[in-house]
């Protein structure tokens, strides 16, 4: 083994992606001291993407206060990699479902306005490249709030402002983009989007995701009709058809808003993050890829980080071997063997509680020992 690439997702609650990678690197050095080892952060566009990419690309976390999903101020944040003029944002940090108490969940009354404020703050900080994860939203406003924060005007029939929440979509009669922030034209928006739902209809955002955000069947029907009308109006005025594009219904219509109003690119999260970290060249020349995550199951095989990087590795380099390590593996984890991972190995060596297994010192020891044993077999 002359060249080994390590790209391990975080072991949530125990080790960050890069910390896990460093532990695995130490194990490699113990078995193959002369090998070239490259460590990359691994994320899939979901929770933890900001921390992983910022740490891996040597950026910084910027705290912020923005308008939350219920229109009250909330503490938020975004990541900046200054030398690349790159901002990394998770929309859930501004309008995530956990920010809304269960008894107050109603997508008619939530907004993405705070996400627009995060984007503006990042633009003020000099960013022009954006990676935005849009999972976990509490909203179904088709980007109405976000776009309003960015300067678009959405007007009622009488010329007054329509509002910024999901329930205000039904009032929009005209769209005025003349006052949108001119700097947006300098920006590139790449959106981590792992759902393929269209904007409206039986598989649209209201029908599929509305109920988990507090929508009753009556609200789902009304919102789907409102979003349909809003999309027709936006497509007519902007000349950019996007409602039927796979992913348009992501995050309550944010996929549509980014693509139609901001020229955003909707990309599977793992693919987008792999591009951002620049791992392709390393994989093309490597003998072995070591990947993994805290829990491995059928969801891993459905495009999460470890399977995504393993599939990329085999496309680029048919001779590469790929092994994965994990805190635990469910019975359906064997599906990963059909998605690029040659073999996977849970790292526990003796019975212990979940709490004990997730203690950092135990995770480090178990991870290092497991990687060392895998490599001894390959020596």
TrEMBL record:
GO BP annotations of the record are: organic acid phosphorylation
Q: Which UniProt keywords apply?
A: Kinase, Transferase
The record, for InterPro entries, names: Glyc_kinase_flavodox-like_fold, Glycerate_kinase, Glycerate_kinase_RE-like, Glycerate_kinase_sf
* Residue ranges of the TM segments: none
Q: Family per UniProt?
A: Belongs to the glycerate kinase type-1 family.
Q: Which domain of life is it from?
A: Bacteria
Instruction: Quote the protein name from its UniProt record.
Output: Glycerate kinase
> Does the keyword Kinase belong to this entry?
yes
User: SUPFAM superfamilies annotated for this entry?
Assistant: Glycerate kinase I
Query: Annotated Gene Ontology MF terms?
Result: glycerate kinase activity
């Amino acid at each position: 083994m002359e060249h080994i690439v390590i790209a391990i997702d975080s072991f949530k609650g125990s080790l960050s992606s890069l910390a896990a990678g460093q532990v695995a690197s130490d194990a490699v050095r113990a078995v193959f001291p002369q090998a070239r080892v490259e460590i990359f952060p691994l994320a899939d566009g979901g929770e933890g993407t900001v921390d992983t990419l910022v740490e891996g690309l040597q950026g910084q976390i910027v705290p912020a206060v923005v308008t939350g999903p219920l229109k009250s101020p909330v503490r938020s944040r975004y990541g900046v990699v200054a030398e690349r003029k790159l901002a990394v944002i998770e929309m859930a940090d501004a309008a995530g479902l956990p920010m809304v108490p269960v008894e107050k969940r109603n997508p008619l009354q939530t907004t993405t306005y705070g996400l627009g404020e995060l984007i503006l703050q990042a633009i003020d900080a000099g960013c022009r490249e954006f990676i935005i994860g849009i999972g976990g939203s509490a909203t179904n406003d088709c980007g109405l709030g976000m776009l309003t924060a960015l300067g678009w005007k959405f007007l009622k029939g009488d010329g007054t402002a329509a509002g910024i929440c999901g329930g205000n979509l039904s009032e929009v009669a005209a769209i005025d983009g003349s006052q949108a922030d001119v700097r947006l034209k300098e920006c590139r928006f790449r959106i981590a989007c792992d759902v393929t739902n269209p904007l409206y209809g039986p598989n649209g955002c209201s029908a599929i995701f509305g109920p988990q955000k507090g929508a009753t069947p009556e609200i789902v029907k009304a919102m789907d009709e409102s979003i349909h009308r809003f999309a027709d109006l936006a497509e007519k005025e902007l000349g950019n058809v996007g409602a039927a594009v796979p992913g348009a219904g992501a995050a309550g219509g944010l996929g549509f808003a980014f693509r139609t109003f901001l020229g955003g690119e909707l990309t599977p999260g793992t693919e987008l993050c792999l591009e951002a970290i620049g791992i392709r060249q390393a994989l093309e020349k490597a003998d072995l890829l070591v990947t993994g995550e805290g829990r491995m199951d059928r969801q891993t095989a459905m495009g999460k980080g470890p399977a995504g990087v393993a599939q990329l590795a085999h496309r680029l380099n048919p001779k590469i071997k790929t092994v994965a390590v994990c805190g635990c593996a469910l019975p359906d984890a064997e599906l990963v063997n059909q998605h690029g991972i040659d073999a996977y190995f849970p790292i526990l060596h003796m019975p212990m509680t979940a709490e004990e297994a997730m203690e950092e010192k135990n995770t480090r020891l178990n991870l290092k020992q497991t990687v060392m044993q895998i490599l001894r077999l390959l020596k």
